[in-house]
Amino acid sequence: MLHFSRDFNFKATSHHSAIMETAFKVISDEHKSGKIGYYSLTKNSLIHIDAVDKLLHTNTILSSGAITDIGIIGIGGSSLGIKAIDSLVSSKGAGTRKLHFFENSDPIDISKKLAKLQKKSTIFIVISKSGGTIETTSIFKTAIEHFDLDLEKEDKERVMVITDKGSALSEFADHYGITQFNIPDNVGGRFSVLSAVGIVPLTLAGYDTKALLDGADSFVTSFFKGEEKHILEKACFYYENSKEQSINVLFSYANSLENLTKWYVQLWGESLGKIDKFQNSVGVTPIGIIGAVDQHSFLQLLIEGPKDKTVTFISIEDFENDLKVPDISLKHIEKTDFINTKSFNTLINAQCEATKESLIQSGISVDSIVFDKINESNIGAVIIYYELLTSLVGAMLQVNTYDQPGVELGKVILYKNFQG
Amino acid sequence: MLHFSRDFNFKATSHHSAIMETAFKVISDEHKSGKIGYYSLTKNSLIHIDAVDKLLHTNTILSSGAITDIGIIGIGGSSLGIKAIDSLVSSKGAGTRKLHFFENSDPIDISKKLAKLQKKSTIFIVISKSGGTIETTSIFKTAIEHFDLDLEKEDKERVMVITDKGSALSEFADHYGITQFNIPDNVGGRFSVLSAVGIVPLTLAGYDTKALLDGADSFVTSFFKGEEKHILEKACFYYENSKEQSINVLFSYANSLENLTKWYVQLWGESLGKIDKFQNSVGVTPIGIIGAVDQHSFLQLLIEGPKDKTVTFISIEDFENDLKVPDISLKHIEKTDFINTKSFNTLINAQCEATKESLIQSGISVDSIVFDKINESNIGAVIIYYELLTSLVGAMLQVNTYDQPGVELGKVILYKNFQG
Q1: Residue A139 CA to its chain's centroid (Å)
Q2: Do A330 and B80 touch (CB under 8 A)?
Q3: What is the CATH number of the domain that holds A370?
Q4: Structural domain includes residue B304
Q5: Chain pair A-B, CB pairs under 8 angstroms
Q6: Which domain holds residue A192?
Q7: Exposed e or buried b for every residue in A26-57, given b needs 16+ CB within 10 A?
Q8: Which residues in chain A are closer than 8 Å to B129, comparing Cβ atoms?
């Protein structure tokens, strides 16, 4: 279960029902017409779970039981969502195979991660919608050389590909007879975590991806039935205040939530930071921070700095961990003894509440998402919640939520600099 | 060596020499009068290196050679700077003892980190200016219980304390006869990394803290001689544009720089996010992102979103790692073969340059800091550079750069909620 709430400041804006109705209609049409495909992944991706289950028997290397590690080679939308879910679920000790993320073109990072893996216990999943992502292809070739992978022979079973049907990477997989999974054409990279992109590696890792999809499905079904009006109201608030409160801070109270905040930063920033149909630069800037640590880093600016920010708190009611502050009193540092015998679970959530209260008293617009506990079902729900919220705000801002034309110029310059 | 440069957009603002002169005088006076102490740490902290060298012989547990791990218990200014330096230097494989950071009140995080350590090979350093930091004292007590530390007997040698002279934590150390190092009263937490806070653990970790201090010292000496005018110009640009370009993005091109960006976020946000002397909320919002990964996440917003951001690129000329993209051509994904045989070092820096160029063409104010390589001397210089820049902008904004009154309310509410 997820519990959503908004404080008084957040609700204060008048709600424009026409704006909300129009946005709801825009994204309902995207869904029904099949123009945008992520809404349907919660059902359509179930087939990938079955396919992976089958693969665990048909792929001779996987079925031998030797595989303990999975190298994910992908960047941006091809890694952030998988990492977000992996961090949360693995924090509870779940999973049977460990995921390793090869993303950046940083030579030290690649070298260190390759050195940790052994050929006999590793398979690689190469993820790219197009196959033309320079970090991904370069790291893939490095892995081929490092592990002396012979793709013409049995090592083809050590590699899988997740890509668009008909892409260069798809043709590559066909050529070498490598297993591939496809991303629907109508699903963009940053909305793809519930497609094969996330479902295949997370199922291989031993996580309950059925619960992930079902949790998301319940939420999206309820939304399209008109039962999650709070998202529309929140989207409308963001839209109406996008100039004055142009920064949205996600304040997540658990270390394992850090990668979810990074996934959110891409989703929000890349979807909404756009030139709108009137040629205006619009968008709201996402920032992810972690509690309680960033109370000691970012809170001062939130409280006393410019009032240009809204803050969403994410917290976990039950960490399912009973670590307690021992009943020890140390001479001269008795001041914090009031927390003795309480659990850290209690402490971190009390810090979250106190910080939230201090922001509300300072006039900041605050809302909350509370996980009753960390599980795949809740993670699926929060993912589709943020995707829907993004689509709604995009519809209200009248931008193309699903493209990213701004990143092309840098690629052109990169190619030119190498070819010049 | 660090190389600093600013692009055309950044230089375009007229420089107000009176503002720069006044700010220079303000911080020179802070330095000379001893009101603010961080300017002098580059010389004054040398004694801590000698003290640690001595301790390695006098502390029987350290001198036995059994210690391979150091648990740092501290949060905010008592961990961010140490982590920033540790990530960079350890990425090169340097160091003799591994640092483990206990910061957050997250029960899962604490449990996992404690489980990784063994009593016989670990010492703990508890860092808090006051001794009243709830996360720090609670985790410290948990470590005492977990490892059954008897502070009345020989286990007192497994613990050290870094705190203000006369603080509650200092009195605690005196009471139990525990080794303590002190932070000067005139050095605030987020400016304390070159005090005992950073020097003691980093020296124990086997890093070249002499070079760290010397690198910082050369820079601060040169600055006060008036030879680093570019910092004044940059500070003035930030000050003049703090309303229109209210977000400062630090775009760092190496995974090992991520913790430096987190240190910067605290320094910048907590120092400058203030109510000024005219009762206005002022401040510039810091954001840290990592290249090349965040080209696939945040770049779209930078290019097409609101023009409310400046961007500083940090890159590393020589990673001292010769990992190359292999000369392998894979059927159908030949498009990125132009990078074959080039090093990843070349690739990531070419991506940095291309991204920078694309931002400049889009009219964004951009500047650059280039490390010739990662070493302690360069890290020391970049730390003091950012501290000086922060003090200068604070002087121009006419705020108290060194306090953090905004974080008190949340603490009051927390205490009240437990005692009510």
Answers
A1: 22
A2: no
A3: 3.40.50.10490
A4: yes
A5: 380
A6: 36-207
A7: bbeebbeeeebbbbbbbebbbebbebbeebee
A8: none
pLDDT tens digits, one per residue of B38-90: 999 999 999 999 999 999 999 999 999 999 999 999 999 999 999 999 999 99
Q: Do A407 and B285 touch (CB under 8 A)?
A: no
Contact map slice: A 151-170 vs B, CB within 8 A: 151, 168-169
Q: Does the beta-carbon distance from A134 to B339 stay under 8 Å?
A: yes
**Whole-angstrom distance, CA of residue B172 vs CA of residue A240:** 53
pTM of the model: 0.97
Q: Does a structural domain hold residue B416? A: no
Q: Which of A260, A309, A349, A414 to mutate to test the interface with B (most CBs of B within 10 A)?
A: A414
Q: Which two tokens stand for residue A46?
A: 């179930």
* CB-based burial label for B350 (10 Å; 0-12, 13-18, 19+): buried
Q: Which tokens is A342 given?
A: 């309480």
pLDDT (tens place) for every residue of chain B, 420 residues total:
999 988 867 664 556 789 999 999 999 999 999 999 999 999 999 999 999 999 999 999 999 999 999 999 999 999 999 999 999 999 999 899 999 999 999 999 999 999 999 999 999 999 999 888 999 999 999 999 999 999 999 899 999 999 999 999 999 999 999 999 999 999 999 999 999 999 999 999 999 999 999 999 999 999 999 999 999 999 999 999 999 999 999 999 999 999 999 999 999 999 999 999 899 999 999 999 999 999 999 999 999 999 999 999 999 999 999 999 999 999 999 999 999 999 999 999 999 999 999 999 999 999 999 999 999 999 999 999 999 999 999 999 999 999 999 999 999 999 999 876
- Does the distance separating the beta carbons of B362 and A409 come in below 8 Å? yes
Domain count of the fold of chain A: 2
- Mean pLDDT, chain A, as a whole number? 95
Does residue A410 form part of some domain?
Answer: no
A250 plus A356 within the same structural domain: yes
- In angstroms, what CA-CA distances link A154 with A60, A73, A137? 9, 20, 21
What sign does the CA torsion over A258, A263, A264, A266 have?
positive
- Residue A223 three-state SS: helix
Q: Using the structure block, give the residue that is written with the tokens 């002022």.
A: B282
Please report, for residues A80, A95, A192, A237, the alpha-carbon distance to residue A376 in angstroms, rounded to integers and kept in the order given. 16, 12, 16, 29
B387 is catalytic: no
Q: Is B129 a catalytic residue?
A: no
Question: Tokens 């106190």 — which residue?
Answer: A354
* A365 and A7 Cβ atoms separated by less than 8 Å: yes
Pair (B115, B250) in one structural domain? no
- Coil vs helix vs strand at A345: helix
Q: Which of B146, B297, B364 to mutate to test the interface with A (most CBs of A within 10 A)?
A: B297
Q: Is A160 in the same domain as A243?
A: no
CA distances from A193 to A222, A254, A373, A403 (A): 20, 21, 21, 16
Averaged pLDDT for residues A371-391: 98
Do B43 and B188 have their domain in common? yes
One domain, residues B189 and B218: no
In a domain, B413, yes or no: no
Domain boundary among A176, A207, A238: A207
What is the SS3 assignment for B212?
Answer: helix
Q: What would the mean pLDDT of A383-397 be, rounded to a whole number?
A: 97
Domain final residue, candidates B177, B207, B237: B207
A148: left (phi over 0), alpha (psi -120 to 50) or beta: left
Could you tell me the two tokens for A98? 């460990």
Per-residue model confidence (pLDDT) at position A12:
45
Residues A107 and A177 in one domain: yes
